[in-house]
Amino acid sequence: PDIGYLHRGMEKMAEGLTYIQYLPTVDRIDYLAGCFYSELFCRTVEKALGVNLSEKVRIIRVTLLELNRISSHLLWLGAFLMDLGAISPFFYAMREREMILRYFEKLTGQRMMYNYFVFGGVRKDIDYIEDIEEIIKILPSKLKDYENIITNNPIFLKRTKNKGIIEPKIAINNSITGVNLRASGINYDLRCDDYLYKDLEFNPVVIDEKDSWSRYKARILEIKESIKIIEQGLDILKKNINLEQNLINPLTLKLPEGEYYSEIEAPRGLASIYIKSTGEDKPYRLKWRTGSYYAVNLLRRLLIGEYLNDAIAIAGSLDIILPEVDK
Questions:
Q1: Strand 121-122 relative to strand 258-266: parallel, antiparallel, unpaired?
Q2: Average pLDDT estimate for 224-242
Q3: What is the Cα 217 distance to its own chain's centre?
Q4: How far apart are the C-alpha atoms of 239 and 212, rounded to whole Å?
Q5: Which of 17, 40, 311, 312 is the most buried (most CB within 10 A)?
Q6: 116, 97 in Cβ contact below 8 A?
């Protein structure tokens, strides 16, 4: 794999746009998990200006982030199985993902590029909570269906077990993060130290098998943990707390001179942003770090010694999305 052929200039483009002009574009860095990059950009600006989020805004963001994580994992699952020749699971996963997309469309007006998070808060109060309750009520039984069809399927096991082994040392030396790292037995989940997730209980999913099958299983288990987080968020949101926001005026927004950095646990691994400001209303330099960039580079090493027909299964198990690779 050669990187660079899909480059869209997302980082260079930031130098010519004000912060509010750039904000609607960041969802496109990973169009399957746009909320994470909106949150990442917003939190960096908020941190630079010393703006704290209200409790309700924090819970709204966490709830939508985890819904977005589930929808991303569902698309990965369907596409991964279809790459291996199993057509039915693709339609099943898309069926459940569609419930989440419809909810996002009702809330934000968009099915993919949500642009819902803003500097200091959200565009409007969260609504249609009953839709989220319906989603997390249905999902657990559907996950059981997936596992009955897939997890111990002999063909699936033959295509994924002991294939694409990522040893912990190799994962660390190649900057692998997220599910791909935890499926190699390393317990590192950035959410454990993320202020958005404080007081919310969940268990990072860690599996020791290190192969393509373990990366599948880890994502199934992570969807279950996301459901637990959403349930806790809904318990708070249903208390009808007033929406208090510390919104930042985007027309006068300038970051103080300096360098700023933030990171988040995105569906494809650790995502981070670096901004260098000269005190103007637009970044002097901006750099994104994405999980897919490192995963696609690992393929050069990971495919050595493997059979050609296993390459698609190994590559698919890493959950690479190319817009994240070429920013």
A1: unpaired
A2: 93
A3: 17
A4: 42
A5: 40
A6: no
pLDDT tens across 93-148, in order? 999 999 999 999 999 999 989 999 999 999 999 999 999 999 999 999 999 999 99
Instruction: Fill in the amino acid letter for 90.
Output: F
How far apart are alpha carbons 39 and 264 in whole angstroms? 8
* Mean pLDDT lowest among 30-34, 156-160, 239-243: 239-243
> Of 198, 208, 201, 183, whose CA–CA distance to 268 is shortest?
183
Q: What pLDDT score was predicted for residue 240? A: 77
CA separation, residue 228 to residues 97, 136, 211 (Å): 17, 9, 26
Which residues contact residue 289 at a Cβ distance below 8 angstroms, ignoring those fewer than 6 apart?
263, 270, 271, 272, 273, 274
| Token pair belonging to 274 | 């670096």
Q: Are 319 and 308 in contact (CB under 8 A)?
A: no
Q: Which pLDDT score, from 0 to 100, does residue 16 have? A: 94
Q: Give the percent of the chain with pLDDT over 70.
A: 99
Query: If you write DSSP's letter for every residue of 248-288 in order, what string do you get?
Result: --GGG--PPSEEEEEEEEETTEEEEEEEEE-SSSS-SEEEE
Question: What's the confidence (pLDDT) of residue 1?
Answer: 62
Contacts of 139 (CB under 8 A, 6+ apart): 70, 96, 223, 227
CA dist., res. 186 & res. 174, Å (int) = 14
Look at phi and psi of residue 173 and say left if phi exceeds 0, alpha if psi is from -120 to 50, else beta: alpha
Q: Closest Cα to residue 97, out of 129, 120, 67, 124?
A: 67
What is the 3 state secondary structure string of 178-216?
A: CHHHHCCCCCCCHHHHCHHHCCCCCCCCCCCCCCHHHHH
